[in-house]
Specification:
Layout (H helix, E strand, L loop, with lengths): L1 E3 L4 E2 H9 L5 H8 L9 H18 L8
Antiparallel strand pairs: 1-2
GO molecular function: 2 iron, 2 sulfur cluster binding; metal ion binding
Keywords: 2Fe-2S, Electron transport, Iron, Iron-sulfur, Metal-binding, Transport
Protein name: Bacterioferritin-associated ferredoxin
């Protein structure tokens, strides 16, 4: 699903950013451009990011420090 319509960021884009090592909202924004214009998508983007980090932690318990 599209999270940020301004720049066309999807939930998959955010998940890929987390898979590539992004562990903060700032890192996700830098990697995807999400919430860089109007900012209305920031809340949804953060939720998608948190869920993706939780999924990463479930697969690799050594990432517990990330959240």
């Amino acid at each position: 699903m599209y999270v940020c319509l301004c720049v066309g960021v999807t939930d998959r884009d955010i998940e890929n950013a987390v898979s590539s090592g992004a562990r903060s909202w700032r890192e996700v924004r830098e990697a995807t451009g999400c919430a860089g214009q109007c900012g209305k998508c920031a809340c949804t983007g953060k939720s998608v990011m948190r869920e993706a980090i939780s999924q990463e932690m479930a697969m690799d318990p050594d990432l517990a420090y990330a959240v």
